[in-house]
Write a structure and sequence with these properties.
Blueprint lengths: L14 E5 L2 H13 L8 E4 L12 E6 L6 H12 L3 E6 L2 H9 L3 E4 L10 H14 L6 H19 L9 H9 L3 E7 H18 L5 E5 L14 H7 E7 L5 H14 L5 E6 L5 H22 L8 H10 L4
Parallel strand pairs: 1-2, 1-3, 3-4, 4-5, 6-7, 6-8, 8-9
Length: 321
């Protein structure tokens, strides 16, 4: 629950920023994509160290870090406070909670015990709730309920006890196998889902994966399939993420682009979003990717939990989270 008295003032808000990295920062991507048809002010997702000059007194700044100790997020949160932004912090505690408390800002606690990349729901919900309570996203409450229903259905369909082709995620993992996934999505929803798939495969399966989005990829990446087809058709699996909010022109681009490049990839797989509403369909696509990446890990005797490379890098950088 978000206490009403602790909410920032909505009257002066001219823009929204979400400050966060990795599995925490993608909560901002989800909100930006799912609510871009109703938010009355622009929203930006910042994954950096410094905040840009436009962040100021008319900015609603969400700082999101599951651990509460992410170096870059703390830096951006402090900068946002210094610039007079209205801060809302979302974390399990840590230094980010201290920054919020010292600034007299709202801090929304998260349930502990999750890997950050597995806590997307716990990070998205506070953002949606605050925006709903402020009247900036009046449809957020209903959309969250529909998303919850869809994710429960998808969970039941993808759990380990469901075998064969009925388990979409396990079948996708089986077909991808040792090939390198290239994930294409369309529009704002498809772009976020494709990026999430790439990150999940990197972190859970400890394997390379790449992503792009329509229509942008048709202005550059499509040219990359002009040669080396003898190599790429052995290595690359194209995974198309489809959803019900695609612009009709994007549907034509999916079909036309596939016809051009399908001879240069090993195979083309397609995933159809289910659920009612933009938020439900986006989270559904992401959830299929979560499950698929874990099945990819297990098929290759990889523990999806540890992220040794990230921890080694943090040790070298002298940071804890």
């Amino acid at each position: 629950m978000v206490p009403a008295g602790a909410l920032p003032s909505v009257d002066a808000i001219q823009n929204i920023v979400v400050l966060g990295m990795g599995g925490s920062g993608i909560s901002g991507d989800v909100v930006s994509a799912a609510f871009n048809d109703e938010l009355p002010v622009p929203i930006s997702v910042l994954k950096q160290i410094r905040t840009p000059a436009y962040v100021g007194p008319n900015t609603l700044a969400f700082a999101v870090s599951y651990s509460g100790d992410t170096e870059e997020t703390i830096s951006m949160a402090r900068s946002a406070v210094e610039r007079g932004a209205q801060l809302v912090a979302v974390s399990c505690g840590g230094e980010l909670e201290t920054v919020a408390r010292d600034a007299g800002a709202l801090h929304v606690p998260c349930p502990p015990g999750f890997l950050p990349r597995a806590a997307v729901g716990a990070l998205v919900a506070p953002l949606c709730t605050v925006l709903y309570r402020l009247g900036l996203a009046p449809g957020a409450n209903a959309l969250m309920l529909r998303a919850q229903q869809q994710l429960a259905a998808r969970r039941d369909a993808c759990q380990p006890g469901i075998d064969g082709q009925a388990n979409v995620a396990r079948e996708l993992a089986r077909r991808i196998g040792r090939t390198i996934p290239l994930i294409y999505g369309g529009g704002a929803i498809g772009a976020v889902a494709a990026y999430r798939w790439k990150c999940d495969i990197n972190e859970n399966a400890k394997a390379p994966a790449f992503w792009h989005t329509y229509p942008e990829l048709d202005h550059n990446e499509i040219c990359a399939w002009g040669q080396h087809g003898d190599v790429t058709r052995q290595l690359m699996t194209l995974v198309e993420l489809r959803h019900g909010s695609e612009h009709p022109r994007l549907r034509l681009r999916f079909d036309a682009t596939r016809e051009i490049i399908e001879e240069c990839v090993h195979q083309v797989l397609s995933v159809e979003a289910e659920g009612e509403g933009r938020l439900a369909q986006l989270l559904d696509l992401m959830y299929v990717g979560d499950w698929t990446s874990c099945y990819l890990a297990l098929e290759n005797d990889v523990d999806p939990g540890p992220i040794d490379a990230i921890m080694a890098l943090k040790a070298r950088m002298g940071v804890s989270a």
